[in-house]
Structure formats: structure tokens, C-alpha cells
Amino acid sequence: MSRKPLIAGNWKMNGVLIDACNLAAGIAAACRGVSDRDVLLAPPFTVLSEVAHTIGDAPIILAGQNVCWEGKGAFTGEISPVMLRDAGATATLVGHSERRQIFGETDELINRRLKGALDFGLLAILCIGETLYQREKSQTFAVLEEQIRKGLADIAADRMGRVAIAYEPVWAIGTGKTASNDQAQEAHAFIRTLLADLFEKDIAAQTRILYGGSVKPTTIDELMAQPDIDGALVGGAALDVDTFGRIIHFTSS
């Protein structure tokens, strides 16, 4: 089953207003004429509205970097799915490794965030991945299974059309290291098999699974040639128009 590739740029905590708008304008120009793949940008919350205005009708999905499970309320420091939609976003990340590792977000909390995103009609990208210690202890598959089972707990099969998975080995994020093509494909194939077990084969076949972890122009083509890799979640390389533009325009054959 053919899955439309998704190239996502996570700007993390980078970009004041003028810089964010200039970057967005450059990426929008790089996306001109692109129709055979989806492009997603996740800027900081403070610039979402202006980035939405800047990209206009360019074929770009706008996303939050995180989301609360409630539409409004006494949740100081959070941003609701209603606020994301109001700012022009139609998608969000949940469970990024930095939220897990630095801010202590649990699988149960991430599951609540995912449900909240889906409740309000957002596309949700669930991020999962193992640390270097866990990989060296041969715990990779056990970690991925736990994160997927708990992250997707009580998610109905008919809602999986608005869920993507991003496999981001923590040891490869911001380090310059990239999982080998075989390592990445092995993890993606495991995830797809697990999705078939949790839901059904058709849902597993339709779900996009992205690779994240120091993705670069020099690695994107071979990664995208792997049968179970459907896109990339890009961090630092998404902050440069030319670099991210090359990743958007990958060739997989």
C-alpha cells in the first residue's frame, strides 16, 4: 500500500518572529510545486500565527510542538488544541524525546495529549525511541513496544488515520549520529508489525512511520529508500532553507 511521504521540520526552541517568518518564506518557496509528499513545520508557539500567515496557501502543514488534552482551563504554561487551531495549526507532535527525557513526560501523559489532539481533529505525530543505554542493553524493541502500547492505549482503530509515528533513537538526536539504514528499517518494520497486532494489517499498512535522528541531506535518500520509512522528523537541519529544501526534495530511487 502506497503511503504519502511526510517530511516534518521541528524548529524546537529556535526562532524569534522575523527569523521564523524568513525561514518559513524560504521553505514555502522550496515547496512550490510539491504534491507527491507532505511537508510539515512545527515552529515555537509564539510565532505560529505569523508563520501561518507567511506560508499562506503553500502546501505546508503547520503543527504545534506539544499540546494539552483540554480545550481550555487552569493549565498554566500549556497550549490547548483549540489554541493551536486558532493559530493556524492542524497537527501536533506529542512525546518528543526531549519532552520525555528533559521534562519527565510519561507514556500515560503522552497518551492523554494524543487523545486530546485527536479529540479536536488534529493530526498527531507520536514520537518514540530508545536511549543509547537501552540500545546497548538490547532493550530497543521492548522500549518501543511499551511506548507504542501505552501511547496508543484506548485509541480506536478508526482514529488511526490521523496518527503518524516518529521513531527517533535518542542517541542519534542532535549528536550527528544517524542510525544505519538497516537499524532504522529494522525498527520501523518492528513498529509496523506491532501496529498490525494492535489494530489490523490495513491500518498498519496505512500508518506513516517517520525516522528522526540527525537527518541530513547526505542521509535522506537512502533512508527514504527503505520500505518501511515513510518520512523524516528533522531537527537542526530544518532551520536552514537550503538544507531542509534538499531533504524535502529527496529521491528514493
The description of the largest β-sheet is: 8 strands, parallel, barrel
Which value, in Å, is the CA radius of gyration?
17 Å
Order of helices and strands: EHEHEHEHHEHHEHHEHEH
Number of beta strands? 8
Into which percentage range does the β-strand content fall?
15-25%
Instruction: Give me the side-by-side strand order of the main sheet.
Output: 1-2-3-4-5-6-7-8
CATH-derived architecture: Alpha-Beta Barrel
Number of domains: 1
CATH H-level superfamily: Aldolase class I
CATH fold assignment: TIM Barrel
| Form type | globular
CATH class: Alpha Beta
Helix segment tally: 11
Poorly predicted regions: none
Would you tell me the structural class of the helices and strands? Answer: alpha/beta
Q: Percentage of helical residues?
A: 40-55%
Mean pLDDT: 96
Distance between the termini: 18 Å
What does this entry look like structurally?
It is a single chain. The protein is an alpha/beta fold and 253 residues long. It has a single domain, classed as Aldolase class I (TIM Barrel, Alpha-Beta Barrel). It is 41% helix and 15% strand. It is built from 11 helices and 8 strands. It has helices spanning 17-30, 48-55, 81-87, 97-101, 107-119, 132-136, 140-151, 181-198, 201-206, 217-224, 241-248; strands at 6-10, 38-42, 60-64, 91-94, 123-128, 163-167, 209-212, 231-234. The protein has an 8-stranded parallel barrel with strand order 1-2-3-4-5-6-7-8, surrounded by 6 helices. Helix 1 (17-30) links the parallel strand 1 (6-10) and strand 2 (38-42). The radius of gyration is 17 Å and the shape is globular. The relative contact order is 0.15. The model has no long low-confidence stretch (mean pLDDT 96).
